[in-house]
Batch of 2 targets.
Target 1
Amino acid sequence: MLYEKKTEKEKSVFVQPLVLVTLFLSVGIAFAVLASRFPDKFWEFRLFDIFTLIAQTATAGAFYIGFRQYGENKLKDRQTALSVECRALVTSMSELLEKMPDSPASPHSYTRDFTKLCNQAGDFREIFSAMREDIIKGIARMHWQDMYFNEFRPYVQGQAFFTFLSNAGIDKDVVRARLARLSNQINPNISDEERSSTLADLVISDPEIADKLHTTKWYWLDSVYEEFFNNKNLNDFLYGTKNRADMYIEAPLLYSLYKLRKKVVLGTVITPSSLR
């Protein structure tokens, strides 16, 4: 299955500890019997004991197999319970993403919605990491990818930074003036996606606009990056897609705000390539 990682094959029953011990013991007894001469009455008195030994060994083997089966069933029950919770979290994230466009693009709405979304994403990551690799975990991975590619990415890529800045208290005329001036500084040969990202970055990093954005209080930006754009955290989720997250192209507004926050809070200057 595309979404399922390949794991090592289970060991053959012939290399299990009890089976090996029983096998060696049986072979040892056989060699001892063949190499030794016993009195004629030996078999008369010991045949029953030999059969008893064989029966006891078989009973021990049956107990061992039953014990292993019990352990496997417990692991399957645990795996199923974890997968149910993963599915519920993905469904909840999908429902939230469907409602988010109905809310105004403002710092207040983003703080509320992205905080909830990232909390659910963090819960999913913890539960998902506790699952063992099998077809059930592969299905959980498939559901997460469906939410990520079909709902999350289209939403964050389509966020209008002009509306957000207006709702953040930035004068619309100031934003329009910056748009008109900075648009001419963009390389005309780049793609539309790169143009949108570059323009959002230039406008939001403009001192007159950046100074009025309270990014020091927007902790949710760190969570959004860690849960949805940090490729170290996404490697397992994106297995089978040969895809890597690119915050600069896929979420121009969020990237620009995150970049500004890092500069203001930590004095760190990040670039598109540093986040890939």
Note: The chain is about 70% helix and 0% strand.
Target 2
Amino acid sequence: MKKAIAVFFAFLMMLGLSAQAEAQPLTVDELIAYWDQVREAALAQENPAVVEQNEDGEFMHAYDQLFLISEEDTLTADSPMRYAEVMGEGLPVLRGVGIGSTLEEILAAYPLDNEALAGTFDEAALYISGMLPGAVSFGSLWRSGSQVSQVEYDVITPDETEAEQCFIGYVLENGAVISVYTGVSRMPLSAAEVDVDSISRLQEEREYTAPRDAQVEPLAREDLLFVCRDGALDFVGANSETLISLLGEPLSDQVDTEEGRSLRTMEWESAVAVLTADQDAPEALLSLKVYGDQLEGPRGLHMNDSLESVLARFPHEGETALYGDGQTAPYGVLTEGAEGHSVVLAVQAEEKTVLLTLDFVDDALWVITCACQ
């Protein structure tokens, strides 16, 4: 009997710990406490603020790594704050997220009902809690494919004719927070209804799913996708028609024929494709080189991604041999040349081996080349 009671209480404790660990929706009280801390940090700055008045009659207080907007030209402990932006370390943070934090750290600090970050190519809803005419809390992010540039959490509190919107947002660059902004604004109730409806509809979008850093499997056949806002290109099954439908008419289109076999080279502003065809086989994509942001590469690769962030998306068992034997697909190797590092990933795709080569300059991704071996 005593053992059963002990097990029961242990179970209750586990439930309590689980509930405690689960991130809760953002609240207005949290934001008010955070604003107080930011205001105190501003008052403690050694150098005085540069104060200017904006078009709305509010006063902008600019410090070295801190920016506030208040209704008063002289900031005090009781000054109402409309907006603030934190741009340096050592300043107040909310939920442990601040300058230098990663996207995953942001997502872990707040509720996340969308683990796959499904949405459109440009944005995704993270969670929504509550329903009008009551208070509504929600999270959203803005991106270009897998490159997230901004994450924001909002609380909308309506009254009879208007609504108050309190928010905190994180601006990211190269996967890390470079500034945190927060504030409050008033809006017509109709505008609040539009915002809540928009985030609810965005929650249902499944047009684009972002790869997460936790994915560290070897490159696979299904990874050979190049994505843009208008759709996706499967390297293995692509031809000139699919390329044109996605990228538009090429700037240059040249065909060379020799002994019944043709090589067609198509060039766009930031991509070059080479296709082959002969009398016995249909046109097929032989290689695709991407050197701009027109296309997102496999596993969400973008130009200027750091070498460290790219290696984190694949197994990394050794310094140069990432995985496999370096001879037979699947394998991955890291080499270093005169201009920088290169990552070569091989995958078996149907009856051919495809090489994905990632070239880096100053440890920043410069060119993506996908080619049949």
Note: Residues 1-20 have pLDDT under 50 and may be disordered.
